Amino acid sequence: MNVEESIKKYLDGTNGSDGQKPDARYASFDYCFNYFQSFREAGNVGAIAEPEHVQLSCLHLGFYLASWGMFRGSADLLQKSARHLVPAIKLIARANATLWEIDAHCYTEPNIRQLLDTGRAFRHAYPGMSDILVTKLMLGVFGNVPAFDMNFKKGFQVATFGPKALQHRDRQISSTHARFCERRAHVAEIHSCKGNRYGVLYRRYVMSTRRITRCCTRHARARG
Description:
Layout (H helix, E strand, L loop, with lengths): L2 H10 L14 H15 L9 H17 L18 H8 L15 H17 L5 H11 L8 H7 L6 H30 L13 E2 L2 E2 L2 H10 L1
Antiparallel strand pairs: 1-2
Helix pairs in contact: 1-8, 2-3, 8-9
């Protein structure tokens, strides 16, 4: 598989996808991720849950989760309004600053514990929350875990969002991830500039279960 060519085809929309179109389904991630990250970069994460922002925060998170399949079938969210996400927004607003910095290349034991503690906090607020919903929520806000959907779990041979899965992933792909960042990230970085015309910053573009992460962005910028 030619990774560079596949990324280029996806971003250009020449493989049957909508690519970087601002109304494409997967662009919902970018709107959501960049909304929450803007508060982190401004050093004002607590404002995410303040009265003047909480409704928009719920709408960004809700639309992303809906377009990524979390409102279909018998999903509990299908029966809820955006206000149902207020507890999640409050948890996000109180998140430790270090949680926002965790990425796939630094799954240390303390970081793994923090990721799992965050997952448990969301499950406490929403009893019965599935692995896929927990991890999609964390992906869309923090960008620190992959979405534990069927394809990811099959590809990486993991069963649940737990310590063994994250430890396994760190051992098996951390070095591969670094090489990917070093050799491939510039492809998406070059094409990402096209997204800026409509305010979606494709610095951390997501393609199904494969992520070009903050680590990749740093490598790409260092190369430039």
